[in-house]
Amino acid sequence: MSTFSTGAIRGAGPGRPGEIDYRLARRHLINEFKRGRLAQHEVCDAHPELVRAAREASEPTTMRCPICEQADVVLVTYVFGPRLPSFGRCITRPSELKALARRSGEYTAYVVEVCPACAWNHLFRAFPLVKARSA
């Protein structure tokens, strides 16, 4: 038996505190495409810079693209916060996330699922960068 709690609705739970998961929105969009209510050009609309980041600065996955079913999607992470460019900073290594979390200010990471082949993209999850507590 599964339960709903306020924490589950807000994205709390087994992931990071404050993490927001976009699986339901993703599933809805894919279903609309598969039913023919959305055309491929309407869902495969990644900005050229996002596609470039997907090819050069991404984390590979074993998930097939739900739209073209020809390639695996990759995950691209951007961080927004104080003293970063207005378009955010593309993270290329996990150590960059840790370094940003040590800075003062509030930073938020956004992980985007991208298919480098057909330009499908969808926000995968978002989470605040939280400073590690010292012992």
Can you offer a commentary on this structure?
This protein is an alpha+beta fold. It has one domain. 29% of the residues lie in helices and 27% in strands. The longest helix is centred in the first third of the chain and has 12 residues, at 23-34. The chain is elongated, with a radius of gyration of 16 Å.
List the helices and strands and how they pair.
Layout: H1 6-10, E1 20-21, H2 23-34, H3 40-43, H4 48-56, E2 59-64, E3 72-80, E4 89-91, H5 94-102, E5 107-114, E6 121-129
Antiparallel strand pairs: 1-6, 2-3, 3-4, 3-5, 5-6
Total helices: the number is: 5
Distance from N terminus to C terminus (CA atoms, Å) equals 38 Å
Percent of residues in helical segments?
Answer: 25-40%
Shape: elongated
Q: Supply Rg.
A: 16 Å
Total strand segments: 6
Average pLDDT rating: 86
**SS-based class:** alpha+beta
DSSP strand content: 25-35%
**What is the count of distinct domains?**
1
Low-confidence parts: 1-14
Element order, helices and strands?
A: HEHHHEEEHEE
Largest sheet: 6 strands, antiparallel
